[in-house]
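Q: My labmate handed me this sequence with no annotations at all. I'd like to see what the chain might look like in three dimensions before we decide whether it's worth expressing. Could you predict it?
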Amino acid sequence: MNAPLIAHFARHWWVLLVYGLIGLGFGVACFVAPAASVVALVWSFGLMALLEGALSAVALFSGPSALGKGWLALYALASLAFGALALVVASGTAAIVWQHKRALRETRASHSVGRLFASTLGSATQSGLGSAPFSSRALLERTERELRAMKLDDQPGVQARSLAMLARSYALLGDYARAESLAGEAQRTLGEEPDRDGLVAATRLAMLNIRARYADAERLARERIAELLRWSGLAAAGEAGQVRAMTPEELRRLDAMPGMELGAHSENHLLLPAHPRAIKEHEMLECRRKLETLLGREVLSFCYPYGAFDEDAVQVAERAGFAAAVTTGNQPASPLSHRLVLPRLAVHAGDDLGARLRDAFAAQAQPHHYDRSFA
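A: Here is what I predict for the chain of 375 residues:
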């Protein structure tokens, strides 16, 4: 190394120090956050290439060049193209990394909430609605306090779903005012986040029906259906605002499809545990009667509205002669499952149904929280 260069660095030793510290910091960052570090590195290369290309373009028009105008122009274009490509790739990678981290945070938050509900109210509430009355209001209030103490502000979807589950739990205790308040809070918490499985909307509908606010419930249901139409593309196909029920012929065609079976789902979609036995019987039997008349066959399956059931509802279903009844327990059934309290797998928009079914059938059957509950 020549003497002038050594003298220069001796005078400006701090430049080497800063450069070394930056290098060490970047090296540590690569171990701590490798994906983000790679994105930052590609961004740096892209910005440097763009700057190099811009300077070369300026030099191209500022006077003669030892490299030659043609080669300089080619170098400038190549640098600009490489820089732009690097920034586009880095931006896309950054978006993927951000979405992955967000999904991980949501998963961790969901697991934390699930553990909370399992340790306090029991795992029955994790399906979206508790299956039996809770032992005490104090237990439910304790769950709410611990839930609110959790840091879920950056996970509005998880927080809203948790509030909705609490609302349904309060409804099972008969505290409908508190349940309705929590359902409204769940909707406000959701904000612009999508209600992916419809739990928040379904909870609000249940509360409105319980409070005999049928007009409000119908309006909310139509809004939700309109959202589903827009998501499915039917609204874009010219059916915006044309919310309707399936026709009798459409229902018969659906029932006749291989692998499909229409079952009863109650007359008015009420939260059955909140009503006396006479109402439960009317809801189940009247719905089945109309469906049997429509399909011209015996209807032997039933789905509890909102997945909500209690021992009385199961007994009504058994006396009504239903061969099977399903809840909203999001897991495969096991050989121990009660035929009138079967769980079912939830399928959301974007799910790979084939993969979900393969995983479900390949998994070893595990006892779930409905096993033998009403044996």
